[in-house]
Structure formats: C-alpha cells, structure tokens
Write a structure and sequence with these properties.
The complex is a heterodimer of chains A (about 180) and B (about 600). Chain A has about 180 residues and is of the alpha/beta class. Chain A has a single domain, classed as Pyruvate-ferredoxin Oxidoreductase, domain 3 (3-Layer(aba) Sandwich), CATH 3.40.920.10. Chain A is built from seven helices and six strands, in the order βαβββαββααααα. Chain A has a six-stranded mixed sheet. Chain A is globular, with a radius of gyration of 15 Å. Chain B folds into four domains: about 220 residues, Rossmann fold; about 110 residues, Rossmann fold, CATH 3.40.50; about 180 residues, Thiamin diphosphate (ThDP)-binding fold, Pyr/PP domains (Rossmann fold), CATH 3.40.50; about 60 residues, Alpha-Beta Plaits, CATH 3.30.70. Chain B is an alpha/beta fold and about 600 residues long. The termini of chain B are far apart. Classes of the chains: A alpha/beta (about 180), B alpha/beta (about 600). At the A-B interface, α1 and β2 of A face β1, β8, α11 and α14 of B.
Chain lengths: ~180, ~600
C-alpha cells in the first residue's frame, strides 16, 4: 500500500486518538507507516492536523498537493486544508450535509449514545474505503486496547457504524457519486 | 492478513526514547515537562509501573534541578538521563557547562527536544548550538526508531569518554509514530559509589583549566571517529546532500519521489558535533554540496572551506521557520538548474487556540479585566498565556518572568516619577514553583508593589497534566500559601475564580494595598482544578445554559469572552454547543443583556 493521509480538525476533538487507531491498525495489517500529530499549545481548540504516510518513507510530513486522502473532522477546516490534497484525491467530511464522501459522523455518534465518538465513526467510514487491502478487525483491536473501560462499547460501536455506513453506500443503498470514485481509486 | 511479531510496537518518538533510556539501563531519570519533550518522562513512569522496574524517577521542579539530580547518579558510576524542551536547557545551562568540564562516570544522557516552527515555544533555538558551546557530543535522530537507538549509543559514548552526551530530537521525531523494535530492558546493578576526587568534582579555577584541556582532548578524539554515512553515492552526482535529523528524512523522500537518485548523493550525519574531517573532504569532490539541518547551521559552521557549500549561511535555506519537504524540493530544483517547477500554496493560518470551555483561567482573566481595566498585565508560560485573547496578557517572556517584569514595571514607573498604573502579574502554579519563587523573594525584599495573581489549577496543564509539588504527586505536599508567606508576602488571599464577583472584589482590594497604599506585593491565589486533568463531579453545576430572546447580537460572548462552546450559529446570534459546554455559567455573568441564562 502507498498512501498519504491528512486528518484535519480542531484541538480537543480527539484527533490524536483517531490517528493512533489508524496508525497502529495499519501497522498490524503489516503496512510500514509513519505519522505525526499536534501537541502542546495548538491543541487548545486551535486548528490541528495529523499526517500519515504508508509505504517506504523516512519522513512523516506530506507535501502540499500530495495527500491521497484528506479527512476532515470539523467541516470549517475543509477549505483551509484543501492545499494538501492531490489532484484526484478524496476528501472525507464529517458534516450533516449530503455530498460525495460526506458522513454525518457527529450525528451518528449522538444517535448511538456516544456523543464524542464522531471521529471514530468517520474513521470507520474512511477505513471501509481501503478494503479489501485491510479489514476492520485490527482497528477494533487497537480501539479496544486504547479505550478506557467505560467508553469501550461506545467506541467500538462508533467505528463499526462508520464502516457499515460506507459498506451500505458501496452496495448502492446510499449512492453518492464520490463513492464510485473511491472504488475506482 | 499477517500479524506482526511482538518484537515491534508503534511508538511515538518520545515513547521510543523512553525505551532507549530503560533499555540503556538508566537507574535515575528526571525531567520537567515541556512540549515537545513531555511524553518521554511520562513513558518512563509508565514502563516503570508496568514492568515493575527499579529506577528512580522524578518530575523535578525545574530543568536545572532535574539535570543535577540525574547528573549526580552518573558521578556515582551509574547511568542517568534527563529530559527537557529546548528552552528548559537554558534554565539548566549553568549545570551543563560545568558538567562538561567535570565529566561524568556512568553514562549520562541529556535529551533536549527542539521545536522548529516554533509550534509551542518562545524561540526556535537549536540545542545543538549549546552542545557545541558546552563542548559535548550531540546525536541528531531522524525518526523514532533511530531516536531510541541513539539514546543507547549516547549512553555508551558517554561512558567511554566520561562526558555528558546530548540527544537532540525535533518535534517531528518526538511526535512522530512508527513501528519500533523493542529489546530487553537493561536493568543494571552497579552499586552507587562516590569516589572522592576534589580536583575533579570540586575543582577550583586552578584545576578547571586542566579539566578544560581534558575536555578538548575528548572532543578531538570523538571527532576523529565521527564518519558521515554514505546512504547513496551514485557515480558522477551533480549534488551532494549532507543531512542530519529530520531534514535527512525529507531529503531521502524527495530524492526518491522526484527520481533524483542518479543525480544526488546523500550522506547522513548522526553526530553533528564534533564533526569529523570527512565532510570537508566530501565538499571538495562534488560540484556543490547542500547541508540540510535544523534549525541553525551547526554542521555548516564546522566546515573549513565553504566555497562549494550551500545551506543556511549563504541563504540557500531560509534562516527561520521549520524546514519542510517543500523547501527541500524547491532547493533541489534551484541547485540542479531545473528552474522552479511549481510553487505550492500552503494552507492559510488556521484557527488560533483558546482556553477550554469552563477553564478557570478564563474566569480569572475576565475578572481581572473587569476589576482593573487600566492595568498592565505581565504574564508567563502556560495555558494561561492564551489570556492574550481576552486582552489580559501584555507580556510573555520566559518561565517566571511575570513576577520580575511586574517588579520592573513598578520600579521604572516609580523612578520615572509617573503615576503608577495597576500592575497585575499572572503566573501558573507550576511556573511559580519552577522560576517564580526567587523573583517573588526579590520583589518583596526590594520593596516592589504590585498584585500577583497565581492561577492555580493544580497541574501542568499545557503539557498533559503532570503533577506539581502541591497537587497530584505522591510526595510531600508543598502549599503555595506557605511558600508565598515564606517569601515575605503579608497580603495573601485564596479564592475560587468560579466566584467571579468575589475575585473582582479581591483584585480591587489587592490593588488598593499594592498600588494605592504602596504596602508591597499582594498575592491572590485563584484555585480551581483544570477541567481536563482535575475535573471534580461536585463542580458540575445544575441546569442548562440557554441563549434567550433578549440577545442583541453584541458579540461580547463569542468574540471578547471567546468561549469555544459559544459560536455564532447559522441564524444570527450565538448558540451553545452542547457537546462542549461544561455548564460553568461564566457567560451568564458576562452577558450585558442578561440574555444567557441557566434554566
């Protein structure tokens, strides 16, 4: 697999957690992976991004216009971080609005009783687009290891919900044109 | 799908370095938290707990203390590590300079983490400079796996030459994650033994000259053994790149991505100081050589003949800001005469950080602006520097400076014969312990008059909630009130900043004492636990916060008060973001129309 992913959002949303699940899961799928995350001052509600590179890379930083996937947890960050996305790359958004690769991850998280689980719903949704190169199990396993007991059921559910949502879309039950592009890619 | 063996684990660079410390057999580790270094010590604590490891660990009160506690273990013939951010090394510089002369016994590793950018610091200084200044070797890792190995190599080198050794990671090593191979924890059993040697451990100036000569000899020997690693060396390359640290990784990736393997030779330097003679020889071989390093020209300055060398000194590489793969690609294009293929537009500045919803500091700053709007507000280093957004922070220099700058303001206005404005310094609890106390003693002793507002949230919040001498530590509790009293302060009040009206009243009272009556320093301790690291169930207030029809869209709550849980909604006017709101109700107090209510 050769893949460059940028995750963009706001501090305090759990982007580090999401990055960890993604990176550790990919590693357990046998993929060489290197990533970065934002710590310190910037985390206090400011813009944060994580960068993940899968393949033979030495550095974790992604050049502008080179990301294959841009994953946006807070929709107001989408426009700003667009310069990372390569031509023909895919942008996944957490938003109640309809559109290609849009998913109301926060809404779904609220509905399943895990209001802070939106990022994992979104992650599950993104991961489904990487199948069959990967399966969900290693990511569930990592989530289980990293989640405190009282949030465990909610977090596993969130990841599964996102994955299923994308699978349904791929089966044509909720057809968006972007999902077609994802398969082609 | 195949599962990897247990030999490897995904680790953050800081976690990997912690493994380097325990695998390397340290029996003492000490640190003061600071981005990007904080997670190294946290991980040492975790490994100690999970593996029942026999190692002495402490979060010290500041970096100088940490350095000296760890160093002494090395005097006793045992391995020790001390970790800090780059600016922390400024605090410990006195100890570093002198310890290079005395040398060490057991392997002694100093990890100083730099923050090019900077992302979370006051400067983007290069700690490798301080290694050259102190004349100690410095490793410059390019990724987490290498950082771990270099910590272990540093122990070996330190022990072999009896010299402190620095490992200098940058943010994108510290906060990178990758699969890292783990080895056995190296528990060592050297018995602590102090061999008295006054000419070394207590050397007077007369003997210091001799120690300096020995130090120079060590550095010359290490230099002669320091060879750059020829990573790729195609015949007839037009350009050689000599790189260390993360810039090496950028060069590697860019060379590969742009198909320059046949045209560019790549050399990697693990130990940028003391540089061996070979880099000078390399430069004579190639038409031109590019030096890539972060953030200052340390390798470059050690080169004898710089005629064919490109880098920071001739401004091929920008002199400020972090190096990025984009800059590296751009410089390759320029040096290889490719013209500039394309300029890639970076994203615009993102949203600036702000204090969390319900943060007790926001209440304190609001009260401060209400009580003494004409004041000057020196402040300090921590989450509360974000009081800038509430216009309640006027200066931010370095750890502990708020107290001295408040005293400085008083003395300057007084000497200049002008009317003295209200002066209110703000400092966090941990920063107070770190560097505020000597300043307070000085201010009281010298007769300065100002208000010192200690923002006590019981933790080092900015860096991840580490303990302070007063809170969350198993050690003997040191009360801030007692310390303040011991510094000679007579006016001491403690208040919960959630009680905004009471804090306003106390600030006015303190200002009367300090400014109007010129009686000295008045200290108010605003104490409420951090909502992220110390939230208590009993603080959760009843009812729900709502915005009523009385709202006249003045924007005070969203812009000036800037609570992240209050945003301008899709319709006009503010709305409460329920998932963020902590129910603190400060906004109820703040709204001039009384439109925000608790139901």
């Amino acid at each position: 697999m050769d893949l460059k992913i940028v995750i963009a959002g706001l501090g305090g949303e759990g982007i580090i957690f999401m990055t960890r699940v993604l990176v550790e899961g990919l590693y357990r799928c046998g993929q060489p992976v290197i990533s970065t995350e934002t710590h310190g001052m910037a985390m206090r509600g400011g813009s944060v991004i994580s960068q993940i590179k899968v393949g033979d890379y030495r550095s974790p930083l992604i050049r502008y216009r080179e990301a294959d996937l841009l994953v946006v947890t807070a929709v107001e960050e989408a426009q700003r971080t667009l310069p990372y996305l390569k031509e023909g790359g895919i942008i996944f958004k957490n938003t109640p609005q309809r559109g290609a690769h849009c998913i109301d991850a926060s809404g779904i998280a609220l509905r399943i009783g895990n209001p802070r689980g939106g990022n994992l719903v979104l992650l599950g949704y993104v991961l489904a687009h990487l199948a069959p190169a990967i399966s969900l199990e290693p990511f569930l396993e990592v989530t289980e290891e990293l989640t405190p007991e009282r949030f465990l059921t909610g977090n596993l559910k969130a990841l599964q919900e996102g994955w299923q949502k994308a699978s349904q879309a791929n089966k044509g039950e909720d057809k968006g044109e972007g999902d077609q592009a994802a398969r082609d890619n | 799908m195949k599962q990897r063996g247990l030999s490897g684990k995904v680790l953050m660079g800081n976690e990997a370095m912690a493994w380097g410390i325990v695998e390397g057999g340290a029996t003492v580790a000490a640190s003061y938290p600071g981005t990007p270094a904080s997670e190294i010590m946290e991980t040492v604590f975790r490994i100690k707990r999970e593996h029942n490891l026999n190692i002495y660990t402490e979060w010290s009160v500041n970096e100088k203390v940490a350095f000296e506690v760890a160093l002494t273990n090395s005097y006793l013939g045992r391995r020790a590590a001390v970790m800090m951010k780059q600016m922390g090394l400024n605090v410990a510089l006195d100890s570093l300079m002198s310890s290079a002369y005395t040398g060490v016994k057991g392997g002694f590793v100093l990890i100083a983490a730099d923050d090019p950018g900077p992302y979370s610091s006051q400067t983007e200084q290069d700690s490798r400079y301080l290694a050259t200044f102190a004349k100690i070797p410095v490793f410059d890792p390019s990724c987490p796996q290498e950082a771990k190995e270099m910590v272990k190599r540093a122990f070996e080198l330190s022990e072999e030459y009896e010299i402190p050794v620095m490992v200098r990671p940058t943010s994108w090593v510290c906060h990178s994650r990758q699969g890292v191979g783990l080895n056995k924890i190296g528990e060592r059993d050297e018995i602590p033994s102090f061999k008295k040697d006054p000419q070394r451990w207590a050397a007077t100036p007369r003997f210091r000259y001799r120690l300096h000569r020995e130090l120079n000899k060590k550095i010359r020997e290490i230099s002669s053994r320091n060879h750059p690693d020829p990573v790729s060396n195609p015949g007839g390359a037009e350009l050689a790149v000599v790189a260390s640290g993360v810039p090496y990784a950028y060069a590697y990736d860019v060379i590969k991505a742009t198909g320059l393997e046949e045209r560019v030779a790549l050399y990697k330097v693990d130990l940028p100081y003391p540089l061996g003679p070979e880099v000078d020889e390399l430069i004579q071989i190639y038409p031109q050589t590019l030096i890539l390093e972060e953030t200052y020209p340390v390798i470059e300055l050690q080169i004898g003949c710089r005629e064919n060398a490109r880098g920071r000194i001739d401004l091929t590489i920008p002199s400020e800001g972090e190096l990025t793969p984009d800059i590296v690609a751009h410089v390759f294009d320029t040096l290889l005469g490719e013209g500039v293929s394309e300029t890639r537009t970076p994203p615009e500045e993102g949203r600036k950080p702000s204090l969390c919803p319900g943060c007790p500091h926001r209440a304190a700053f609001w009260a401060l602006r209400k009580a003494l709007p004409q004041g000057i507000y020196p402040s300090d280093i921590g989450c509360y520097t974000l009081g800038l957004n509430l216009r309640a922070v006027d200066t931010c220099l370095c750890m502990g400076a708020s107290v001295n700058q408040a005293a400085g303001l008083y003395h300057s206005f007084k000497q200049g014969g002008r009317s003295i404005p209200p002066i209110v310094a703000t400092i966090g609890d941990s920063t107070f312990f770190h560097a505020g106390i000597p300043g307070l003693i000085n201010a009281v002793h010298q007769g300065a008059c100002f208000v010192l507002l200690i923002l006590d949230n019981g933790t080092v919040a900015m860096t991840g909630g580490q303990p302070t001498p007063a809170e969350n530590s198993p050690g003997k509790r040191i009360e801030i009130e007692e310390v303040v009293k011991g510094c000679g302060v007579d006016f001491i009040r403690t208040v919960d900043p959630y009680d905004i009206p009471l804090l306003i009243q106390l600030l006015k009272e303190a200002n009367r004492y300090a400014r109007d009556e010129e009686k000295g320093v008045a200290v108010i301790i605003a104490r409420h636990p951090c909502l992220i690291y110390g939230a208590r169930d009993e603080d959760r207030r009843e009812g729900e916060i709502v915005v009523g029809e009385e709202c006249d869209l003045c924007g005070l709550c969203t812009e000036r008060f800037e609570c992240p849980a209050l945003r301008t909604g899709p319709q006009e006017g503010p709305m409460i973001i329920k998932t963020l709101c902590t129910n603190c109700g400060f906004c109820v107090f703040v709204c001039p129309q009384e439109a925000i209510k608790r139901t």
